[in-house]
Each structure stands twice: as structure tokens, then as C-alpha cells.
Amino acid sequence: QVQLVESGGGPVHTGDSLRLSCAASGRPISNYAIAWFRQSPGKDSEYVAGISWHDNSTYYLDSVKGRFTVSRDNANNTVYLDMNSLRLEDTATYYCSAGPDLHGHDYWGQGTQVTVSS
After folding, report:
1. Between the CA of residue 68 and those of 41, 74, 106, what are the distances in Å?
2. Are 90 and 39 in contact (CB under 8 A)?
């Protein structure tokens, strides 16, 4: 079993950048596809980005393409979500999940809050 801890969230202004981290323990993060989801009050959860374990192929939600980048650092057992040009609508709690592929989400972190204001 793998444990995931997200960090890096916080209050920012529109146009700012943030780097979220998803740190794994218990098992190598290299064994898992990692996905980033976000949830804001009153809205459905969104699958924001993901990175596979075998070839590092990636997925991005259309609204974040060109602004967000997901990457992995297997040596540090961490996956990152670099978020640039942040918008008000990016405000949410961001969660990372681990699974066998980009469509499987077996393990979850506790989330980190991102709040974007004008």
C-alpha cells in the first residue's frame, strides 16, 4: 500500500504560479500512475492531470492545457503539478491519487487547498 501526501497549496493571485507536490511513502511512486483531481464546493470533481508509470505519458483537462504540467521525480518518490497563469476558477482542493494506470485511482491523499483571488 502507498500513502500519499499533497503539499504546496496556498493563497495566490490570478496569473501567479504554484507547484503542488504529491509525496509517496510505503512503495515506490514509480510503480503507479499518478493523477491530480480537484474539488471545489458545489462543483463536480475534475480530473486535472495525470502521468503514467510506464512511459510517463500524460493527460490534461482541456482548461489547464498549456498552463499546468505534471511530472515525476522517482528518486524523490514525488510527483509534481506545476500550475502557471492561475485563474479564479482554479480555486479548489487538489488531490493526488495512485493507481495501476491513468484510469485507476486506488489510493488518495488528503488534499491541499489552492485559492486564487484577483
Report:
1. 22, 19, 23
2. no
